[in-house]
Structure formats: C-alpha cells, structure tokens
Amino acid sequence: MASYQKFSGNAPATSSRERQFEPAYEKWRRDDLYHLAKQHGIENRASMSTDELARALRDIG
Q: Using an 8 Å Cβ cutoff, are 25 and 33 in contact?
C-alpha cells in the first residue's frame, strides 16, 4: 500500500532498502572513484575530493 509521503512528494529519493545495496563509496580509494566517475562521464572529476566523487557517483544512481 502506498504511503501518504509518496503521494505528497515528501518521500525520500531512495528507501532504506534501496540504500543498503548501494556500494559504500566512502570506503573506496580516490583512484577507484575517479576511474568509475570517468566511466560514467562525470565532469570536473579531476578537481573533486574523495567525498565529492562518492557523492557524485551516488547521485547518478
């Protein structure tokens, strides 16, 4: 059954169930994040910190 939050647009973008299957990018090395960002075509990746790369990768889904 759908919740009020889903209908009202106040629901979080991802559920906790979906987040548990996301890679833990914060634990990855910057090197690895950079190469993954390159594969996904993330711009300005060279100037991003490890945290910024992790956030950008998480945001693309």
A: yes
Tell me which of 28 and 61 has the higher pLDDT: 28
Q: Which residue has the tokens 């950008």?
A: 56
> Cα–Cα distances in Å, from 25 out to 8, 19, 49, 55?
31, 12, 12, 8
The pTM score is: 0.65
Give residue limits of the domains in the chain. Answer: 26-61
DSSP 47: G
Q: pLDDT tens digits, residue range 22-44?
A: 788 989 999 999 999 999 999 99
| CB 37, CB 56: distance < 8 Å | yes
Q: What's the full length of the chain, in residues?
A: 61
